[in-house]
């Protein structure tokens, strides 16, 4: 899937509604050449760089949320794992005592 250009996105998705500010950014010639090669006929570097910056910001936000979720899970991991293990042990012992696990019986999905 090719990346979308700012001009291809619905206006509200890439444009904040505020005025644009002219600025100067120093980039290596190698990076500019690569950008120009990817742009093809489109000659608006500002739109391309703005789209890339917004994508980077969104990716950074997404990564931060994922990290926060991992911290929450890891904080309670030991307790949650012990609880899950306890439940599985209880299910296994109860099922095994009642004879519900007959490993020699043929299964519907297995040929006999």
The overall pLDDT average reads 78
Structural class: mainly alpha
Strand content: under 5%
Q: Quick one: how many beta strands? A: 0
What sort of overall outline do the alpha carbons produce when their principal axes are compared? elongated
Radius of gyration: 28 Å
What are the segments in which pLDDT stays under 50 over at least 5 consecutive residues? none
Please trace the helix and strand order, writing H or E for each element: HHH
Structure description:
- The protein has 112 residues and is mostly helical.
- The chain has a domain at 44-99.
- It contains 3 helices and no strands.
- It has helices at 11-14, 29-39, 45-97.
- The protein is elongated, with a radius of gyration of 28 Å.
- The model has no long low-confidence stretch (mean pLDDT 78).
Give the structure's gist in a few sentences.
The chain contains three helices and no strands. By secondary structure, the protein is mostly helical.
How do the strands and helices of this protein lay out in sequence?
Blueprint (H helix, E strand, L loop, with lengths): L10 H4 L14 H11 L5 H53 L15
